[in-house]
Amino acid sequence: MESLNGLAEGLASLATLDNLLVILIATVIGLIGGIIPGVSGPMLVVVALPVTYAFDPTQAFIILTVLYATSVYGGMVTAILFRAPGTPESALTVLDGYPMAQQGQAARALGVGILSSGVGAIIATVGLIFLTPILASLAMSFSSAEFFAIALLGLAIVASLSSGQIGKGIFGVGLGILLGTVGNDPMTAQQRLTFDSTGLASGLEIVPVLIGLFAIPEVLRRGRLNSNRRFDANYGKVKVWTRENFKEVGPTTVRSGILGTVIGVLPGAGATTTAVLGYTQAVKFAKIKERFGKGDPRGIAGVESANNAGSTGSLVPLFALGIPGSATTAIMIGAFIMHGFQPGPNLMSSQSTFVYTVFAAILIANILAILLSKPFINGVVRIINIPYSLLGGIILTFCVIGSFSLRNSIFDVGVMLAFGVLGYFLSSVNFPVATIILGFVLGPIAESNFRRALMMAGGDYTVFFTRPITAVTLGLVVLIIAVPIVGTVMRRVRKTPVSEALKV
Fold this sequence. Notes:
Elements: H1 2-14, H2 17-35, H3 41-51, H4 57-82, H5 94-102, H6 106-139, H7 144-160, H8 166-180, E1 183-184, E2 191-192, H9 206-224, H10 243-265, H11 270-285, H12 297-313, H13 315-321, H14 327-338, H15 345-350, H16 352-383, H17 388-405, H18 410-428, H19 434-456, H20 463-466, H21 468-495, H22 498-501
Antiparallel strand pairs: 1-2
């Protein structure tokens, strides 16, 4: 009942021309950004982050959350038509979407994609509205020990789900944690790793770091691709609300939407992980599995419902616990800092109108995305034929302006460029850059709560094992890290010939 009252209050708060216009514009930009390869949700949020400083906090978060939620819709368009996913979350949509397009069923594939994306997003938005206050209420009884364990759980999930690269994942998280320690010690205010630099005295600003690691490498990478490639947008009439679509992909869409919401709530999981699980469950429940990978609509539905649900679901731990559920929501931590908010359980009680207004905006944006997707696709697909040299230049300009404007500091521009070079190098060797971002954001949260818990317990480390929630969470952390490592070792042992194993 409290959630329904809050939603009604949020909808009433949105009932101004300014707010509705902001939602509409953010929805349109999100759809365009998702469709254009190289302009994904994280990049949109990163570039928009400094721009939102000119808006009031409510409108700022409406812009960022709507951009993130609606960009995932658009990613499936180019994945289906051109085998070029507009967003990482839609990478698996290629498996069945592109074969359908090659078989002359592109319009049907797009219809299934729109339907499943919309249903998954709305399922997750309902979950966001009802689960966030419950989780926040539960978190009110948490101490620093519980928050440390949850932050550590997020770091463990990020490291273990780094595309099967557990070693790189652990290293990336560690590097992010190290970068997060630069500046003032949170307990003693002593300088750490500043090397007597005044620019580093207050620590690394999150916005230049995020822009450098996410936006710059993508612009450089796309700039090296063939800019003369032209896309043909002739694919026929898109049908969304048909009995055939509901009958064939309805159950898969609902299952993936629920699964994506649940997995998205886990700190650090993110929409890309939910997309993989969504596709896996679609195959698992199918009676005829041979069609998958050759043009099965359920393959599209499983991925698109799950990734849209996962992106919205990842907002739950952000608002309820102050812990990001994905790399993009980690970027939004910077927005909370910019606008003077502290995300977490107290936000739900002290700023409930603000929170439910943002939730209501996400619900409206998802409905708008469903309505706009069909008429929007044909026109927007033609936009991707704009030379990326022009588009990339515009993005780079926004990156420089955004980094400089926060503190009017050339030093921050230098930080952005330095991390841009680092991000480009790491991306070129297939390093999971998102692990650094989440380590950078979650590391300080884990450190401050770890030290605070020890201080409150008088230095007694058993505080982390005698509290039930903390002990169970830390046990999960050990399992999450240990299982992939043990599995890798066992596979190598099985592959090792007996004669080699017996050598001294």
